Automatic annotation (TrEMBL):
This is DUF2281 domain-containing protein. It comes from Fibrisoma montanum. Residues 30-72 form the DUF2281 domain. InterPro entries: DUF2281.
């Protein structure tokens, strides 16, 4: 049986946010997620919006029907 529950690791202990559904000794795998501090520091390295302004354009006839598809229309 595979079951996922959440918890918080702090000061060498895991505090479960819900009760595990097992009563007997069971092997577990613990996966550590990125901390909020790590997310904040990694956000600094993300690209900013608007850096390609004026570099990308769409043709005025972008939505016009294609002549190649006239047989199917």
């Amino acid at each position: 049986m595979l079951t996922t529950i959440t918890g918080t690791y702090e000061n060498g202990q895991i505090i479960w946010h819900e009760t595990p559904p097992v009563k007997e000794r069971t092997e577990v795998i613990v996966t550590f997620l990125e901390s909020k501090e790590d997310k904040i520091s990694s956000d600094k390295h993300k690209r900013r919006g608007g850096t390609m302004k004026g570099e990308v354009w769409i043709s005025d006839d972008f939505n016009a029907p294609l002549d190649d598809l006239n047989d199917y229309m």
